[in-house]
């Protein structure tokens, strides 16, 4: 890891894809490329350490899909506790100062926008974007130690949702006009169902 940046990428991929109608959506293809690979390729230029959070039974498949990517895997110690627990597992697996957290089903995020979130988070607890008048919990850049604590508190004292983590962390909110300078609304589209996947023209 480069000492001058200390940036990690955390891909949260441990969900059951229950709305997807069979199969792991992380490996579903968008324009011929598995979604999680598209996410990894967007993150790689922006980070020094790339961690994929997953279930143990996913790992071999994800290793195959990401075989030529420089990634590490952080398996959930307890299954099915939701994305906040998965995010905490990923944060605990890195020694970076800041980490950008991205869901495995967000295949359109541009690297330049992730870089801009890191810049906004500098000397802060983190940074999150505002889109359509609402604060988005992902993608988010988090100070790793502060983010880990916020995840724990969200699980113990709140409802264990990503928005609880944002509330507890109190990060910088990047205003919509700044977000629009680096990306388009398509970047925040996540794929939850096969209908949504087919709607992309796959």
TrEMBL record:
Cofactor requirements of the protein: Mg(2+)
Main location: cytoplasm
Subcellular location: Cytoplasm
EC annotation from Swiss-Prot or TrEMBL: 2.7.7.77
GO BP, one annotated term: Mo-molybdopterin cofactor biosynthetic process
CDD domains listed in its UniProt record: MobA (cd02503)
InterPro entries the record matches: MobA-like_NTP_Trfase (IPR025877), Molybde_CF_guanTrfase (IPR013482), Nucleotide-diphossugar_trans (IPR029044)
Binding residues annotated for GTP, in chain numbering: 12-14, 25, 53, 76, 105
A GO CC annotation given for this chain: cytoplasm
Pfam families: NTP_transf_3
GO molecular function: GTP binding; metal ion binding; molybdenum cofactor guanylyltransferase activity
UniProt similarity note: Belongs to the MobA family.
Name of protein: Probable molybdenum cofactor guanylyltransferase
Organism in which the protein naturally occurs: Halogranum gelatinilyticum
